């Protein structure tokens, strides 16, 4: 019925006089509504951009400045010190405007200039304040006078409630690190991973590069940093993500999981209805800039530019490089169920469908008995082979009501999607809710047209390509050795009581576990962020350091004393925190070397040093999942409503991918991935080694497990 209704809405015939176009009333109505909504969205976006662009001022402050200026002229006090008179003399059309009108126009121009100048001055002062990072390198609870004064100034500067993009123009640019510093830090990071002969060779390559080619490449990077918003991010997006020609499922994409122990309903359609509606509420807030920016310490804003492409974004495949297409508006979602595709409209005219209406629509899809069309069942595999993974993210709703999410990586990093995910889960449970029978609340919306079943004409040759792509994707997926475990002996609460950083504690535990698992150390990648800078994305923390290696060897030496082990642990933890802080403040190693390598390729020069650096495999890739970016509910009051976090696949074929989340104060959830095809790895074995390593560190730091306290 719906297909027939759509078919008669638009008709055309070719006649001797040309094309006879006939539009049905419904088609005209939809065209009108689409244009109206697009225009309305542009106005909302414009309003949001204006309000963010003039922060901390507002249109009302402009009126106030104009009123004060005009009032002073009425009282015969020239606050402009003669500038209004000067502007009046320069105005054209003297025969048109009366002297009074010219004075008023001049006063408005002067007031606008003062108002804009105040905004620009504010941005410059705030940018200078945000360029100070000394607060990151001071011990917790021991702030210097300089930092206290800085914090006071920041509180004054950001006292007005900001919109999502209010601070974007005030964020400092990512600085290009000194070449000498990067080379020295790199050599320190690999010293413990190489024998003496190999390290000496690498040191020779590094210093030769530093003295000659490196200086030339560094000048080009400085030049780029002067005109580009961020000297790394555009190259990182293009060459690391969009130019990748292999499958990005498992190799690049990442995932998020539902609540760890709670499932608010087992009704699949109801959970989908609430989740989709909550995400659309988030999109509405995002478009209007009503989501406050993430603030470190509550006063330092993080860059928000990655959030712009969260919705309405598709990765378009290309021969050599893909592109990202971002649309102004999207009024439907694509639903896949049992090999069939449906277009699910999200609006009834201009009104967003309620959760219960969405549940009814989705239930109709679940109840549809029709089989897939020829070639349709595995059609989605086209995006999972050597091509691309097209949507910015995909929501998965399981038959038991559990949720999952798969995100494409090029447009944003995991904390950005995590922000949406936290909002959706909290809104689902604490705002929308369900009836006693597990259904969404509200009217069922039975009068709505059913979802539109997509029609396909897939040629035989295309089906062969689909089968090959499906085989590639299935082979890749079947090779993933995945282990998600919950560690409940203790959590970050007790780790912090031992005067240790939870992240450093876990990273050192990973080094100990990996050494016990493989008998040697390896290059370790820990993801950090550079969102303290405009358009910042990520940086690498090289978590395997000389200090951590010394500590691991001491732990494995039965003759070593506890006091020596404890001292070595403190040194390793301090070194790790220093490396993390350097990465966050734009003094990391790997993005700098990556950009130097790209410049060398653009110039057609070869660098043995850079080739060696970028060919080194990351056999242990790690990341911490952020928790409670949004304070939408109290975890102490609802301890069961903790997220399981998310994870990613291994970077190296013979390596591990480890994601972890400190879920509340007493639980650590680990996501461990490797490949069955590697005889060296086993995710469940490695998981047990990590847990034992954490217990051993707890014993060393005198933190008894929960059962022994």
From TrEMBL:
Major location category of this protein: mitochondrion
Keywords carried by this UniProt record: Acyltransferase, Fatty acid metabolism, Lipid metabolism, Membrane, Mitochondrion, Mitochondrion outer membrane, Transferase, Transmembrane, Transmembrane helix, Transport
Cellular compartments annotated: Mitochondrion outer membrane
EC number(s) from the headed UniProt entry: 2.3.1.21
Reactions mediated catalytically: 4,8-dimethylnonanoyl-CoA + (R)-carnitine = O-4,8-dimethylnonanoyl-(R)-carnitine + CoA; (R)-carnitine + hexadecanoyl-CoA = O-hexadecanoyl-(R)-carnitine + CoA
Cited Gene3D superfamilies: 6.10.250.1760, Chloramphenicol acetyltransferase-like domain (3.30.559.10), Choline/Carnitine o-acyltransferase (1.10.275.20), Choline/Carnitine o-acyltransferase, domain 2 (3.30.559.70)
Species lineage: Eukaryota, Metazoa, Chordata, Craniata, Vertebrata
Membrane topology: Multi-pass membrane protein
Any GO molecular function: carnitine O-palmitoyltransferase activity
Protein name per UniProt: Carnitine O-palmitoyltransferase 1, muscle isoform
Uppermost EC category: transferase
Active site: 409 (proton acceptor)
Keyword Acyltransferase attached: yes
Family: Belongs to the carnitine/choline acetyltransferase family.
The protein's annotated pathway: Lipid metabolism; fatty acid beta-oxidation
Domain Carnitine O-palmitoyltransferase N-terminal: 1-47
Transmembrane segments: 50-74, 104-122
GO biological-process terms attached to the record: carnitine metabolic process; fatty acid metabolic process; long-chain fatty acid transport
Pfam families linked to this entry: Carn_acyltransf (PF00755), CPT_N (PF16484)
Described purpose of this protein according to its UniProt entry: Catalyzes the transfer of the acyl group of long-chain fatty acid-CoA conjugates onto carnitine, an essential step for the mitochondrial uptake of long-chain fatty acids and their subsequent beta-oxidation in the mitochondrion.
């Amino acid at each position: 019925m719906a297909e027939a209704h759509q078919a008669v809405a638009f008709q055309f015939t070719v006649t001797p006089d040309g094309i006879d176009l006939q539009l049905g009333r419904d088609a005209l109505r939809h065209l009108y509504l689409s244009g109206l909504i697009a225009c309305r969205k542009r106005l909302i976006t414009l309003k949001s951009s204006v309000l963010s662009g003039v922060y901390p001022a507002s249109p009302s402050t402009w009126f106030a400045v104009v009123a004060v200026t005009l009032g002073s002229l009425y009282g015969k006090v020239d606050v402009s010190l003669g500038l209004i008179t000067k502007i009046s003399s320069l105005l054209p059309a003297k025969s048109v405007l009366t002297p009074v009108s010219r004075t008023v126009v001049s006063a408005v121009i002067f007031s606008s200039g003062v108002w804009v100048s105040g905004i620009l001055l504010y941005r410059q002062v705030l940018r200078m304040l945000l360029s100070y990072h000394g607060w990151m390198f001071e011990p917790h609870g021991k702030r210097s006078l300089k930092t206290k004064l800085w914090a006071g100034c920041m509180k004054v500067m950001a006292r007005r409630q900001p919109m999502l993009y209010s601070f974007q123009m005030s964020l400092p640019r990512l600085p290009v690190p000194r070449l000498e510093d990067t080379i020295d830090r790199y050599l320190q990071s690999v010293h413990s991973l190489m024998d003496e002969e190999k390290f000496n060779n690498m040191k020779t390559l590094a210093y030769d590069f530093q003295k000659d080619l490196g200086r030339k490449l560094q000048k080009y990077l400085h030049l780029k940093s002067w005109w580009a918003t961020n000297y790394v991010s555009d190259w990182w997006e293009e060459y690391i993500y969009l130019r990748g020609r292999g499958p990005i499922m498992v190799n690049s994409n990442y995932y998020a999981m539902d609540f760890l122990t709670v499932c608010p309903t087992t009704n699949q359609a109801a959970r989908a209805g609430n989740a989709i509606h909550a995400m659309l509420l988030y999109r509405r807030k995002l478009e209007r800039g009503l989501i406050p920016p993430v603030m470190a310490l509550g006063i330092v804003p993080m860059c928000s530019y990655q959030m712009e492409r969260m919705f309405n974004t598709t990765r378009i495949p290309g021969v050599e490089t893909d592109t990202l297409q971002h649309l102004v508006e999207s009024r439907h979602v694509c639903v896949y169920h049992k090999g069939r595709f449906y277009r699910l409209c999200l609006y009834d005219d201009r009104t967003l469908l309620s959760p219960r209406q969405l549940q009814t629509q989705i239930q109709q899809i679940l109840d549809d008995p029709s089989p897939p069309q020829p070639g349709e069942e595995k059609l989605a595999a086209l995006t999972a082979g050597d091509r691309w993974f097209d949507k910015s993210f995909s929501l998965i709703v399981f038959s038991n009501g559990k949720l999952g999410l798969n995100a494409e990586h090029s447009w944003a990093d995991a904390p950005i999607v995590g922000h949406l995910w936290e909002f959706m889960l909290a809104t689902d449970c604490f705002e929308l809710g369900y009836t006693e029978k597990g259904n969404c609340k509200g009217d069922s919306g039975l009068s709505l047209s059913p979802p539109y079943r997509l029609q396909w004409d897939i040629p035989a040759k295309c089906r062969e390509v689909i089968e090959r792509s499906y085989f590639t994707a299935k082979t890749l997926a079947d090779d993933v050795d995945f282990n998600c475990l919950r560690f409940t002996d203790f959590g970050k609460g007790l780790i912090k009581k031992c005067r240790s950083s939870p992240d450093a504690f876990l990273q050192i535990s990973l080094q100990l576990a990996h050494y016990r698992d493989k008998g040697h150390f390896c290059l370790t990648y820990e993801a950090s962020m550079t969102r303290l800078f405009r358009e910042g994305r990520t940086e690498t923390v090289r978590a395997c350091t000389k200090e951590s290696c010394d500590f691991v060897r001491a732990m494995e030496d039965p003759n070593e004393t506890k006091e020596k082990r404890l001292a070595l642990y403190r040194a390793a933890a301090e070194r790790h925190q220093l490396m993390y802080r350097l990465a966050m403040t734009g003094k990391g190693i790997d993005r700098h070397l990556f950009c130097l390598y790209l410049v060398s390729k653009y110039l057609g020069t070869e660098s043995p040093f850079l080739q060696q650096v970028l060919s080194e495999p990351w056999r242990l890739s790690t990341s911490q999942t952020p928790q409670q970016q949004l304070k939408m509910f109290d975890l102490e009051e609802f301890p069961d409503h903790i997220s399981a976090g998310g994870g990613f696949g291994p970077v190296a074929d013979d390596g591990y991918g480890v994601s972890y989340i400190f879920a509340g104060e007493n639980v650590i959830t680990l996501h461990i991935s490797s490949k069955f095809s590697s005889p060296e790895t086993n995710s469940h074995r490695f998981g047990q080694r990590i847990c034992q390593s954490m217990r051993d560190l707890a014993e060393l730091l005198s933190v008894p497990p929960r059962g022994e306290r």
